[in-house]
Amino acid sequence: MLKPQHELVPEIQGLRAVAVLAVLFYHIWPWILPGGYVGVDVFFVISGYLITGSLLKEAEGSGRINIGAFYARRIRRLLPAATVVSLAVALAIPLFPKGQWADLANSIVASALYVQNWFLAAEAVNYLADDAKGPMNHFWSLSVEEQYYILWPLILMPVLHFARWSALSPRASFGWFVGLIGLGSLAYSVWLTPVTPGVAYFVTTTRAWELALGGALAVIPVRHFIASSMRAVLGGVGLLAIVLACVVYSDQTSFPGYAATLPTLGAAAVILASGAHVPLSAGRILNTRAFQYLGDISYSLYLWHWPVIVIYETVVGRAVGLRSGVAVFAASLALAHLSKVFVEDPFRSARLSLGRTFLVGAASIAITVIAGASYLVRDALEPTPIASSDKPRGALAMKDAGYDWRKEDPLRIVPRPEKVNADVPFAYRDRCQQTVEGTEVLVCHYGNPDSGTKVVMIGNSHATHWFPAFEDIVRTQPIYFRGIAKSACIFSLEPVYDTGLKRPYTECAEWSKNVIEWLSRERPDVVLISHSSGSNKVTQEKLIATWRPLLEMGLDVRHVRNIPWLPSHPGKCLEGSKNWMTDCLPSRKKVLREDNLFMVAKTLNVKILDFSEYFCDNTHCPVMIGGVLVYRDSHHMTATYSRTLSGPLQEKLALTAPSRATEVRQNQ
Fold this sequence. Notes:
Blueprint: H1 10-28, H2 39-62, H3 67-92, H4 101-112, H5 116-124, H6 139-166, H7 170-195, H8 197-202, H9 208-219, H10 228-248, H11 261-272, H12 283-286, H13 289-296, H14 298-316, H15 322-349, H16 354-381, H17 426-430, E1 444-446, E2 453-459, H18 461-464, H19 467-476, E3 479-485, E4 497-498, E5 503-504, H20 506-522, E6 526-530, H21 540-552, E7 556-560, H22 570-576, H23 580-583, H24 588-591, H25 596-603, E8 607-609, E9 624-625, E10 628-629, H26 639-643, H27 646-653, H28 660-667
Helix pairs in contact: 1-2, 1-13, 1-14, 2-6, 2-9, 2-11, 3-4, 3-6, 3-14, 3-15, 3-16, 4-16, 5-6, 6-7, 7-9, 9-11, 10-11, 14-15, 19-27, 21-25
Domain SGNH: 431-646
GO biological process, one term: lipopolysaccharide biosynthetic process
InterPro entries: Acyl_transf_3_dom, Acyltransferase_3, SGNH
């Protein structure tokens, strides 16, 4: 048996309990601890302290680091329980709508390979990403730690060689290196968090400093020079800092960045205070039997709680409440106890050779990957049905006097509800839609540049979902169409506060300015504006100030009215509903309104292209029309339905003669 290289400190075990309780309360009852997610940061500090301390002790004792033995300990400690939870989630996938199976399978594979944090970081900046809860999403923090466990000893080995060459002690060499890594990562985190908070939250490079902070505590023997009375105060202040972050922080807090220093320094203070056996010390709380027990099962409790929450909400169809949360908490606790007793402990104490340990690790990863990939293979091999040919197709059906959308069959529509998320415009594949970070004007080109009529459409994804209709139009009409869109951006010269970025969206305002300059150079015949209204994010006055320069240039500006905005994802609703007309049929009055864009167009006397008649009748806005699923989510058209609107779009554009912009361009 390979012995651990460090002794367990009771206060640290109790601190683990604080961390996992913070995360559990945040996930189950977020209104109680809106900042409970900082428990993950406490875990990072603990891991950095224990792992760096273990490696330093070995380096000082033997002059080397046994990589194989270190990895073997990590495998036996982490992989068995993680594998059991992952396989349980894989078995539970059929409980979810089919449309989520591919995402869940990808998440299982990413978690098994410990790259879940990078997978979520990519999704965080992908405007098409589904925002549904995934039962494996919490593996992102485990991925960060596992990457640390893999890379840290490999990095410290050359540092140890440098120590021998430079006559520095291993402790001094480790200290300098940990400090440089920590400061560099902290600086990067502070810079990246306000720029792209979704990426900053998940990536390893913005979290490395938290692990390095724990490592610094192990390398620099500050604790031995602090009096017991001062350590008691330090521990209490540390606990209060963690609790304060849990209570004061929320999803609106720009995190990690500067904000992460409060809970991490709090965790560091508690670790420094360990061993202070005086009244009113943090140890008096952390060393109690309850906290020690929760700390002992904290790993399994963290693993199980999130899948239990997500599966409960999926099966029951509603969020966890106050009373149901107690049941979820109890179930998570029971599963964690069983996992600790029957999975963690037996594998950790097993007398396995290095070779067998690595074989167990490889088998665990392989089994989990296969379990996830099997759903991907099944999804790829499953044929896609075609829509019935005996009824009108798509939007044109709404103009058929004999058409009755009530007779639509969810089993005979395209795209299939479970695959609707993939039915997107080619603009995303071609990467001609600007990302959140960019400000350059990217252009999607369709048709012949020498065509007589030049049409430009600007906006965000609410403009992009019209592009497939133009792709069809340019095949038969002398029109050169260019699409200019930026993700999540409201076309406005004034920065609008973005809840995702947690700051004013300055890149959007800069992009809008660049678009106006581009239009002044290009002088297209028609400029179409279509983007999400932004609710109360932007005022009509700011929109008017942005649109007016286009009118002053003499451009033919037109507004394409927004399509209905549904209360939920129709594809998921259709999958889980026994009666779609009862569960998945939005009321026109609730989902189709005159938003601020519509009012600005009326104020400026801008022509409005209104296609509401192709989405709604007098009372309802059906999610299936003419054998086609209309929406790919709650507020974007499927590319398939967009193409069926090419005829109505061409008719409403009525491009029969050159516009004034064409005459101006020809006279220049």
